[in-house]
Amino acid sequence: MNVHDSERLSGLLESAGYARAGAGEEADVVVLNTCAVRENADNKLYGNLGHLAPRKAAHPGMQIAVGGCLAQKDKGEIVRRAPWVDVVFGTHNLGSLPALLERARHNAEAEVEILDSLEVFPSTLPTRRESAYAAWVSVSVGCNNTCTFCIVPALRGKEKDRRPGDILAEVEALVAEGVLEVTLLGQNVNAYGSEFGDRYAFGKLLRACGEIDGLERVRFTSPHPRDFTDDVIAAMAETPNVMPSLHMPLQSGSDDVLRRMRRSYRQERYLDIVRKVRSAMPEAAITTDIIVGFPGETDEDFEQTLHVVREARFSSAFTFQYSKRPGTPAADMDGQIPKRVVQERYERLIALQEDVSWSENKAQVGRVVDVLVAEGEGRKDGETRRLSGRAPDNRLVHFAPGDETPRPGDLVRVELTYAAPHHLVSDAPVRGLRRTRAGDAWEARQAGPSVPASRSVGLGMPSLGVPAPLPAVTSACAVD
Ligand code: SF4
C-alpha cells in the first residue's frame, strides 16, 4: 500500500511540473514517505534527515518533505527535531504535497499539515505507475479492526470503501494502457463493502473483474480470515482471471494468542478456510504472515503456530519477531518475551517453513506454467542468463529464454525443471512466447520520454475541496 502511495506522490509531483531527478543528479525536492509499522522507523527517518541536512545546506533552495504514517504520528515533532524539514504531511492528505511545497517556498517557513480523517479517496490522485504491465488498485483504505499489535487503525483511520464502479473504471483504464495484472489493495481487503453494507461485495468485485476484457491476472492483498466468506472462495475458483494464490495472515496459531491479539478467528477457522481453498483450487499457493513472541506467548502457544504451518503447507511466509509499537495496546501488555526466547522460536519457525516451502516447490517440478515476465525480479539474471517472472500462483520462476527474448509484460510457457525453497527454475526450452500489449507498453516506455502521470479516473469519494492523501512502506508488513 505504501509503494502505491509513493506512486501517487510521484504522479502528483509530475502533474505539478516536477521531473524525476536523474541518477547522480542533485534533487531539488526530496520526499520521504515513512512507515510506522516496521521497527525503528523513527530512527531511520531521523538518520536519513541527518544525512540530508548538509546536502540541503550545500544546495540552496532544496526542499525536504516528510509524509506517511510516521509523520501522521509525530506531527510537529518532526520539524522540532529536524528544523531543516520544509513540509510535513500525514496519511490523509497526500494530495496537498505540491501546494505545501509551494507554500513553504513562498513563506520561507515549514508547513505542517496533518488531517484527522481522509477527505478524498487517494485513488482520485494522479499516479505515476512503476510498472507497465502490473498495477495496484486500492479498493479501500483504513481498517475497522483493532489488532493489539497494530498501529494502522490509529494512523490510517476507519475503513473507507471506494464505489465498485470507480474501482472497475480504474481497472478498465489501466487495461486500456496495457496493464495485464492488477492487485486489489486494502488493509483488510475482503471486508470491502462493510461501509456500504454489503458483506458479499468483495466476491462480487472479483467476479466483475472477471468480465473485463484484456485483464489476465487479478490478485488481492490482504484478506482477514474473519471476513473470508465462502462466496469469495467460490468467486476465486470460478473467475478464470483471478489467480490461484492467496496471502492470508495467520499471525499466530494459538487461540489464546489470537485472543490477546484481538484477532477474532481461531486456529480451526483458519485451517478450515485453507482446506476449502485447497479443495476449490488444488493448485493454489497460500502464503502468510506470522508474528513470533507476542506478549504472553508460551512454548505451547508457539507449538500451535508450528502445527498450523505444518497443516496449512504455506508456500512461503513473512515471519516477524514481535517488537513493541508505541501507541498500540500490546506495547503495554505483561509477559513481554525475552529476545533470546523469541530468537530461538523464530529460528525454529524459519527452519520448518523452509522445509515446507521447499517440499511444496519440489512438487511443482515437471509442471508447465505461464510466466508473466517481470522486470527486476531476478537479481542474478545477468549471471545466469535467465529471465524471471511470476507463475499464476505467484511463485517466482527463473527461466532460460529461447532465441526470441521476451519483454517484461510478455507471457512465456515453460516447464519447471528445478525447485529451491524460494524460487523455481526452468532450463527446458521455452514452449511458447506470447507478445502482449503489456510488453508493447513496456517497450514504448523504454523508447519514449517518461510516461506522464495518468490522471486518475474520476470517482472515488466525494471531494471536499483540495485533494488529500496517504503514506508508505516498502516491504511486507506484519499487518493485513
Ligand atoms: S493487523 Fe490488519 S486487520 Fe489488524 S488492525 Fe492492523 S490492518 Fe487492521
Automatic annotation (TrEMBL):
It catalyses: N(6)-dimethylallyladenosine(37) in tRNA + (sulfur carrier)-SH + AH2 + 2 S-adenosyl-L-methionine = 2-methylsulfanyl-N(6)-dimethylallyladenosine(37) in tRNA + (sulfur carrier)-H + 5'-deoxyadenosine + L-methionine + A + S-adenosyl-L-homocysteine + 2 H(+). Its EC number is 2.8.4.3. It comes from the Bacteria. It holds the Pfam family UPF0004. Binds 2 [4Fe-4S] clusters. One cluster is coordinated with 3 cysteines and an exchangeable S-adenosyl-L-methionine. It is an enzyme of class 2 (transferase). Its cofactor is [4Fe-4S] cluster. Gene3D superfamilies: Methylthiotransferase, N-terminal domain, tm_1862 like domain. [4Fe-4S] cluster binds at residues 143, 147, 150. Keywords: 4Fe-4S, Cytoplasm, Iron, Iron-sulfur, Metal-binding, S-adenosyl-L-methionine, Transferase, tRNA processing. Residues 362-430 form the TRAM domain. Residues 1-106 form the MTTase N-terminal domain. SMART domains: Elp3 (SM00729). It is found in: Cytoplasm. InterPro entries: Elp3/MiaA/NifB-like_rSAM, Methylthiotransferase, Methylthiotransferase_CS, Methylthiotransferase_N, Methylthiotransferase_N_sf, MiaB_methiolase, rSAM, rSAM_horseshoe. Catalyzes the methylthiolation of N6-(dimethylallyl)adenosine (i(6)A), leading to the formation of 2-methylthio-N6-(dimethylallyl)adenosine (ms(2)i(6)A) at position 37 in tRNAs that read codons beginning with uridine. Belongs to the methylthiotransferase family. MiaB subfamily. This is tRNA-2-methylthio-N(6)-dimethylallyladenosine synthase.
